Amino acid sequence: MNTSSQTNQNLESRTPAEMDAVESYQEVQPDSRSEKLTPRFKDKHDAFWSGVRDGRGAPAMVLFAGMVGFGAMGRTNGFDLWFTTATSFLMFALPGQIVMLEMILLGASSLTIALATSLTATRFVTMTATLFPMLHERDRNKQLYAKVHLLAMTAWAVSLKEFQTIEPKHRLSYFVGLGILCWLISVPGTIVGFLIAGSVPMPITLSLIFINPLFFLLTFTEIKVSGYRLAILVGSIAGPIFYLIDRDTSLLTAGLIGGTLAYWIDRRFIRHHDRRVKP
User: Cα dihedral angle (242, 73, 81, 198), rounded to 10 degrees?
Assistant: First the structure.
């Protein structure tokens, strides 16, 4: 009875993202609470610089490459260096930045541009809902409204994976170190792309934009939760199909229908099968 009670307390104390891992039927031990993790960092300062070091590799390089493509796109379409760079610094959301430039070229109103770019940012709702509940309770305060600006696809994917081995009290410091490097690297990336536009074949320059989502996909293939991999597979199939049906809404419909289908298959069949197999 004591072991059962302790296990239930462990499950109740887990964050939503950790519960998702539990529901994926990865082995749960009574002493596997996040508070019992082996300390990786001495203090918050150490966690911050560890995030910076982790960001120096693939995350920063991938984001830099994407911003190079965006900078070249801005110059090709007649925008000046200051405006193009300011969008990277203030928005720090590549899909929204691309949509904004396209809407401006089409002569759309300010309200329409704002609505369109806001729609592309809806992905941040799920990103914050899955990542920030994993932070320590003391760190979930009003200051997060400023720090959420550092959230990007690369920082989110890396943090979601690394948080599983980081004590909750050090997770925010790690995220800020990782995120601030990715944010700051976007500015020189945009400038470089703007300056080299014309000297490098445009198809090659613009193709750099797609390195960011490719890095995101490769990062998630390393995560053991079957639902994530299933969502990638279903999305890869649904995307081209919905593009042939209606390319203007294909991304939205493929994500909505494909993601829902992957979630249903995972809940209805994969996890149900795991329940029956496990003793």
Answer: 180
